[in-house]
Amino acid sequence: MKVHFDLRHIEAFRAVMMAGSVVGAAKLLNVTQPGVSRTIGLLELRLGYSLFERRGRRLVPTAEAEALYREIEHVYIGMGRVAQVAQDIRLQRAGALRVATLPALAQWLVPQAIAKFQQNRPRVVVFVQSLPSRQIAELVSTRQFDVGVVELPLPVPAIDIHPLEPVPTMAVLPAGHRLAGRKRLSLNDFDGERMVLLSAHSFVRYQIDAAFAAAKVAPQVVAETPSSSIACAMVAAGAGITLVSKWTAEPFAGPGIVVLPLNEALVSQYAIIFPADRARSLLAEAFAVDLRSAMSIHSSSST
Q1: What's the number of CA atoms in the CB half-sphere (13 Å) around residue 237?
Q2: Element at 288 (helix H, strand E)
Q3: Structure confidence at residue 73 (pLDDT)
Q4: Which of 6, 9, 112 is nearest to 51 (CA)?
């Protein structure tokens, strides 16, 4: 037959085991001695066996009581662990964070923000995935990711969008290119140049094409790619020059690659997104703060 007892019975039994007497248990629980005695008696009645033997003023636990106490301690230890985890979550010291970012920011900016985020949260596990912006928005909207970093505009409705500061478009050139010695470039400088540009269906490419058309500039497009990181890698391989956002271009700057600003105001607009109609996790909000901080630091250091 199944035994039925509640937490009050367990607490009284555990207190007697810890204190070694009803008097001590009553003090631990801040209740009366008769109340503890009645609770232990009721527990023994429901269990169908004795838990203690009285020897003078002492209560000596039976072998059955010792076995039961060991199991109860496992429960209390588990409850203690749950309480600790609950506190760690409240203080952002534990838990998990799922981040989706577009490839343009996955090379260094988002990883730097994650590294800063984890400095004070070493037990927080972060899962990071690099995906196209549209797919990120869909996954965040269905709560498969806690936070996303995307490029605007986006048509997905079920997300909460927080735009970041606009990021200027930069020219990326091989160090030996005839334009590499300039301090700044203009769109007119690209007329007839071999260029690696983003795919024609992207919003950034639409902006670039519109700017070229307005300036009556006709570059020679030799390659297209949906990834701005691949475009920069192709420049490094000598395929041509490209136009990408500052956050994509900067990691490629080095002895063989030159990154230059433009006179024209071409920008990329990024945003942090969360699932709509849902309380955000504290970890997701903390990561968003660290990402904005990383962007601000790098913006000020390069101006």
Answers
A1: 10
A2: helix 282-301
A3: 82
A4: 9
Dist CA 81 CA 79 (whole Å) = 5
Which H or E run includes 208? helix 203-215
- The number of angstroms, rounded, from the C-alpha of 99 to the middle of its chain's C-alpha atoms is 5
State the chain's maximal CA–CA distance in angstroms: 105
Which pTM value belongs to this model?
0.68
| Dihedral angle sign, alpha carbons of residues 278, 281, 286, 287 | negative
Dihedral, CA of residue 233, residue 238, residue 244 and residue 247, to nearest 10: 50
pLDDT less than 70: residues of the chain: 1-5, 57, 80-94, 299-303
> Do 221 and 190 contact (CB within 8 A), yes or no?
no
**To which CATH superfamily is domain 95-165+269-301 assigned?**
Periplasmic binding protein-like II (3.40.190.10)
Say which residue the tokens 């799922």 belong to.
98
Architecture category of domain 167-267 in CATH: 3-Layer(aba) Sandwich (3.40)
DSSP class of residue 121 equals: -
Tokens read off for 171: 């020219």
**167-267 has the same fold as 95-165+269-301:** yes
